[in-house]
Design goal:
The complex is a heterodimer of chains A (461) and B (340). Chain A has 461 residues and is α/β, with parallel strands linked by helices. In chain A, strand 10, helix 3 and strand 11 form a beta-alpha-beta unit. In chain A, helix 2 packs parallel to helix 8, helix 9 crosses helix 13 and helix 10 packs across helix 11. Chain B starts with 14 loop residues before the first strand and ends in a 15-residue tail after the last helix. Classes of the chains: A alpha/beta (461), B alpha/beta (340).
Chain lengths: 461, 340
Amino acid sequence: MPIQVLMPALSPTMEKGNLAKWLKKEGETIKSGDVIAEIETDKATMEVEATDEGTLGKILIAEGTADVPVNTPIATILADGESAADLAKAPAAKQEKAAESAAPAAAKAEAPAPKPAPALQAVAEPDPEVPAGTEMVTQTIREALRDAMAEEMRRDPDVFVMGEEVAEYQGAYKVTQGLLQEFGARRVIDTPITEHGFAGVGVGAAMTGLKPIVEFMTFNFAMQAIDQIINSAAKTLYMSGGQMGCSIVFRGPNGAAARVAAQHSQDYSSWYSNIPGLKVVAPFSAADYKGLLKAAIRDPNPVIFLENEVLYGHTGEVPKLDDFVIPIGKARIVRSGSHVSIISWSNGMTYALKAADELAKDGIEAEVIDLRTLRPMDTETIINSVRKTGRAVTVEEGWAQSGVGAEIAARIMENAFDYLDAPVARVSGKDVPMPYAANLEKLALPTVAEVVEAAKAVCYR
Amino acid sequence: MAAPKKAAASSPQDKTNGGSPPEFTKEQELKALRDMLLIRRFEEKAGQLYGMGAIGGFCHLYIGQEAVVVGMQMALKEGDQVITGYRDHGHMLATGMEANGVMAELTGRRGGYSKGKGGSMHMFSKEKHFYGGHGIVGAQVSLGTGLAFANNYRGNGNVSVTYFGDGAANQGQVYESFNMAELWKLPVIYVIENNRYAMGTSVSRASAQQDFSKRGASFNIPGMQVDGMDVRAVKAAGDEAAAWCRSGKGPMILEMQTYRYRGHSMSDPAKYRTREEVEKVRHDQDPIEQVRNRLLAAKVSEQDLKAIDAEVRDIVNASADFAQHDPEPDAAELWTDVYR
């Protein structure tokens, strides 16, 4: 039976890629290990090697095709003795599946291909920060972050970027792509693998008035540096009676990515949001990523900027403005509704928005609030919403105990107790280290169904 | 010892400044005497105020180590930064910070350098380029390297003097910082104040390599052992290190061999060393007595020296008076300076 060659993934979070080039033609003999094609994403390029011997039977995805979902069959290999006629024998069941699908593939692999990263949900509420009629450009979050840094570096010569692989490698997640070429090695600085040390170097430089952007390859590694972040960056202004503070941004991916297990999948939202002296920003939309990173770089205080690797490749509409800055500390009502308030931030918004769609089918209109900033928290927006809906659900990927959801629930109780028609419900990551196995990982994270269930429960439905 | 090969000829690596250091002029001797005396009398007064309950929390006195900061300060120029750990009163006075402001911070009053919000271990002066005053052992080493990074970024020709003790020298981030400082040729002088004890643990019980001047060897950072009880030797080493840093050659390590007469903090049980050991250093090596004896030998009159004593005592007494009568911070200060 012909063997299918599937679109490979370059990274655990890759969902689609471009088929850049075929290096073998139909009918050519191939050996295991031969490079047969090149694929690329906005992050990297990769050669596709044949894993079987035979003849390249049929190319299913033409070269130059963009946004091919991972696991889509891209070609078939005929084993010795098979002929093109055998192609018709491709599994019947799989062909049936393909018939349902709009995918360009002639057949579909058994593993369901993840959907291509969707453009972030069209929001019901316009962003008050964007003037009506502003032209919008579609960008990935990765590009929005890069543009935010580049714009601020052009604007202020005291701004520089340091971290592991930020310069020559162009960023471990390609967020700093092109910055070295534009700003040079003086301002885009590759550090050794030494989080504790370079965080301290960044804070020391900031104490003199420079404005470092310190990239952590992930916030999991920032635990090595957390003493400098908290004891030095967050507290110095206070300890010096206001004489000496530091304007510094610590940024990088936070929380669960995909299949990287316990030590690479922790959400630090609640850790940093506990600390006076820090500001903590955790956006969801591409526009917010850009506008808030620019605000963070300009802020005279240390800012923890929590990104999400799963979102890096997602696209969204970013206003085409010369200087688009979103103030830190303001939540945004992304979808308005009157029955229940769903409050989340960062990738938690993915579950919140999908749940709101589901709930709408059952006649429950959810108001979805994207906190965007965790410290200072926009309590007013939460409370105003809960006073209207009388019900609230928090959604976070982190753990529930001492979590941000717990803090939101406490604020609602303190400020809107009399308006509540039901206890606040929390949806969170499960109280376990992140497992590796795909099924267990799924179980450990919040799901849309859990958010729907929680929302229905507080609505007594 | 592996100094960078190209720099080997001019490297001070592996030198110990044996023999007599360059003589001071009479003016330099007098300045050193006055500055060291100010620190000693200030610290003695701080000890008394602590005993009276006027100073709270932790209080780490610098008595015995005065030649280190005074000699180093004589090697610096305007704009050079100083940063250290929690045994910091001497460093602050040496940079020219006012005794009143330091003492009032120790008593937690509004006239303190940090408005009473930092205390003994956390004081800063932007004006005097003093960057703290840090309570986490070793944290100041990465921060001080960052100050040097900023000097390099700005190309301002300044040097960061980063002080830490023999105890902090065993922290991991010290070596992370050494690596970056040499890699990027940052202008930082790492002054390791080896006072022989990290709290109550002697160097021999905590350190596999007890020659701290060699602690940068695997990074090619040159180092010197310096008689930290002789202010002239300290200044000479400081001059050499500052010149090295300013010429773009990167960091240098100066191990200052010194001694603290008092306990680690005010609550030190003093069980880890003998009274005789302390007395012997005091008698044989006291940094202030060394200068005083040289001045007397050079026919400076007892009376002139007494005048310096009196001036210093007046400053210290006035600071103690100020620090006990200055009001506590306004309650509203609780909420200020968290953000700006």
